[in-house]
Hints:
Elements: E1 2-3, E2 8-9, E3 15-17, E4 25-31, E5 36-41, E6 46-52, E7 57-62, E8 68-73, E9 78-83, E10 88-94, E11 99-104, E12 110-115, E13 120-125, E14 130-136, E15 141-147, E16 152-157, E17 162-167, E18 172-178, E19 183-188, E20 194-199, E21 204-209, E22 214-220, E23 229-230, E24 236-244, E25 247-254, E26 259-265, E27 270-275, E28 281-286, E29 291-296, E30 301-307, E31 312-319, H1 330-340, H2 350-366, H3 381-397, E32 404-405, H4 413-423, E33 437-441, E34 446-456, E35 459-469, E36 475-485
Antiparallel strand pairs: 1-33, 2-32, 3-36, 4-5, 4-31, 5-6, 7-8, 8-9, 9-10, 11-12, 12-13, 13-14, 15-16, 16-17, 17-18, 19-20, 20-21, 21-22, 23-24, 24-25, 25-26, 27-28, 28-29, 29-30, 33-34, 34-35, 35-36
Amino acid sequence: MIKHSRFWLGAFAGAFLITQGAQADKLYVANQGGSTVSIIDTDANNTVKSVTTSSGAVGVAVNAAGTKVYVTNSGGDTASVIDTSTDKVSATINLGNFPNGIAIHPTNGRAYASNWFSNSLSVIDTSTNSVTATISIGTNPEGVAINPTMNRVYVANVSSNTVSVIDTTNNTVVKTISVGESPHNIVINSSGTRVYVTNLKSNSISVIDASNNSVVSTLTVGNLPNNIGINPSGTHLYVPINPVNGNGAVQVINLSDNSITSTILVGLSPYGIKFNSTGSRAYVVNAKSGNVSIIDTNSDTVISTVTVGSWPMGIAVVSTNACPADSNGSTQTGIDLVKATPSNYSLFTQTQIDAAKQSGIQSCKDNPTTCGISISSGFTQAQMDAAISTAKQSCKTNPASCGITVSQNTDGSTQAGIDQCKADPNCKGTSSISGIHATYDAAKGELHVPFVDLITLGVVQTFDVYLLQRNGSFTFDLDLSRVALVQ
């Protein structure tokens, strides 16, 4: 159900578009100099909390559910487990000597932490938070990455100039790969076909074919590349380097031709880097500057810088909003506008709109015929989403084309809806005023709005209306046969 809120619908023939919600994130940043983890709210782009761990917090990883964050403490020879619902340390795990990098397998529930001075890898059962195995690898291991497609863990051995490949089914080293000088960190593309390793002293990236674990090419990059990130779509690498004109920077590599397309200036000594789930934002930890640079990957520009603790190193991203994210980022723009001037927007709350649209999408997925789609029509979810996105952008660019103008009746409900969506990860979006609702019937493909203000011949009148869903889309047209004057 969608909460009643007055809005202007100027043209009877105009379409009503239900839009999709935005994603919010929390960033967990390990501060090696302060033995703390800074938590950043990406809605406001500020540090909202600091959690004390143990000496030398350095590596960070989050489980697949987003409920637990694991932090390696290099000075304490431990890992701290942070419960993301409370942002408090819930467990401490003993590891090897000077633990460093850490990664969590998305399906088998195990975490893998490298131990710098022990030359080993600790295998952690995250269900019990206990070490179940210790694997001997190369000298001074640092970066850890997991390839769930191949059930392999890759570990960069800094002083051996190698990468150890471990079979996660039996915790054995199946291959040791020679790479460049002083390999530090590793990323793997989402399909699990390519492994990328930064070689700090060689100023290069070794590209490994995951099918046979052999180096197939070497990419030349800037000075001292000590970490690396790959966007979720697997099209670009983001590589922190030092220094460029006295600052650190991030080089962007287009993997279609291995060309460097951008060099983005950030803070001093950039190290950790992660992306949000859509890839629209990259978060870069600047160790010497003690802050995090937030990069808009559409323009490859720094849009915000957030201060954290002393000598930050590792970073992890946790999504805090279950409302579905918009692939082109336009929904976030709209929410930002509403938050800046809520009095100018008194349409249905974003939470309510999100809930109705998500309900419609799920219903359509469960039974495509309810949306007027037959199997033979060949529509895919991606095609429907693309159509929704295009229509939404058109409506945002020119609201009048959707028959919507700004209402003078402002009750602040949009901000309340945003707050509700933040507080309720399930994003139910159900609320009411005086028991009056607008109701979406997925089976009939119609939206019933009991109160809508219309301007007819210069006079504002209130009508009870029905909107009919167009086949194969989430766009609605006014049913002129069912328009009743209320007052």
